[in-house]
Design brief:
heterodimer, A: about 240 residues, mainly alpha, 9 helices, B: about 150 residues, Helix Hairpins, 4 helices, elongated
Chain lengths: ~240, ~150
């Protein structure tokens, strides 16, 4: 009965959404704000990637809120899985032999670990020029560090203190850049510093610095999340 | 005809279908982990709809390359919004997964009905009241896989 009612509801909702999208001018987005930003972003922000301009300049405060939500989620996961094996090797001596990941996995991860770091830093530092940026590059960095700990369940994990320090430092520098902009330019997180040569790596003022802070913060938080969730059920 | 059979129409159809499949899974499944996966699908579909709303005919990605010659660009605002939504979605999924781990640890089950009945009994014992339901109901916890 529940399934039939759900199916009926889904069918009605599908019909409604299809009709609404059918009435929309497909391929001719009616929104005006996008056009205004596309026209003025080049002069106002100086970043070649307009999405980056929107994320860090026009909606910079929103990105700060997004970082706070991610921080709250990471803190809540840490709170829920307190006795996790985050910072210490697994205490279960019976399955230490099986829990080792083997030659191929360990050496493969060791081989691609520096490459993943380079790719992550490249994506972060070119966020204002190419698709990508702090969030995407931060995920790559987090995966690189988390993989190393996952294949070595007995080995030394990432130091919790260092992760917390990176996270706090990145978050603080994001806010400090915003406050300096508020003091010198009159608006919180307003783009400042010299815009440089348009389209080169050293351009767009504070945008690459902000994205670096975002990347480090997201990387540290996601690495902590993955390691907190990577627990044996016995350890919870 | 309501929906033009164009590539955008097809993409909208796919995005709406994906989110509705996720919603349907959310409604009918009783396993909490499957509900989380359905929620992820729902979210992916919603993100696709949002990013499609900024699509323009023959539009290119909103990035000024060196050889940019005045072509139409897609709307950057929905793309930035979806970037935000994806990141927040990841945080919510991790939080939900941690909660599911705790529920599994405490109730030894992932079935919603089992969890609900155990929870009601627990609350009733704590509060020293009769558990909800009829006195004549057989004393049993709902079997997994039973239809409602």
């Amino acid at each position: 009965m529940t399934k039939f009612a759900s199916l009926l509801f889904i069918a009605g909702l599908a019909f409604f959404l299809m009709v609404v999208t059918g009435l929309l001018p497909l391929g001719n987005s009616p929104m005006l704000i996008g056009n205004a930003i596309l026209d003025s972003a080049k002069e106002q922000v100086g970043a070649a990637n307009v999405v980056t301009s929107v994320v860090l300049a026009y909606r910079g405060l929103d990105t700060l809120g997004e970082l706070s939500i991610l921080f709250a989620a990471a803190s809540a996961v840490g709170l829920l899985l307190t006795k996790s094996s985050f910072n210490k090797p697994s205490k279960n001596p019976t399955n230490t032999e099986e829990s080792d990941s083997g030659f191929v996995a360990i050496n493969g991860i060791d081989l691609i670990f520096p490459l993943l770091l380079v790719v992550g830093m490249y994506i972060i530092s070119h966020g204002h020029l190419t698709p990508g940026g702090g969030f995407q590059g931060g995920v790559v960095l987090a995966i690189a560090f988390a993989m190393r700990s996952i294949v070595r369940p007995r080995g030394k994990s990432i130091d919790h203190g260092v992760v917390t320090f990176i996270e706090a430092f990145a978050g603080l520098s994001f806010i400090v850049i915003g406050l300096v902009a508020l003091y010198t330019q009159g608006h919180f997180l307003q783009p400042m510093l010299d815009q440089g040569h348009f389209g080169s790596l050293w351009s767009a003022g504070t945008i690459p610095l902000l994205y670096l802070a975002v990347g480090l913060k997201v990387g540290a938080e996601l690495a902590g999340l993955i390691l907190a969730l990577n627990t044996d059920e016995v350890n919870i | 005809m309501l929906i033009n059979i164009s590539i955008e129409g097809l993409l909208y159809f796919g995005a709406i279908s994906l989110s509705l499949i996720g919603l349907f899974g959310l409604l009918v499944s009783n396993n909490v982990f499957r509900m989380l996966l359905a929620l992820v699908m729902f979210e992916a579909g919603a993100n696709l709809i949002l990013v499609l709303s900024g699509f323009r005919e023959n539009g290119i990605a909103p990035i000024f390359l060196a050889d940019y010659s005045g072509a139409i660009m897609n709307d950057p605002v929905p793309q930035a919004l979806v970037l935000t939504a994806i990141v927040i979605g990841v945080g919510i999924q991790a939080l939900a997964l941690a909660l599911i781990l705790r529920v599994k640890k405490h109730y030894k089950s992932l079935d919603m009905r089992v969890i609900r009945s155990k929870l009601e009994h627990e609350i009733a014992t704590q509060a020293n009241v009769e558990p909800p339901g009829s006195h004549h109901a057989p004393k049993q916890i709902v079997r997994a896989g039973e239809h409602q």
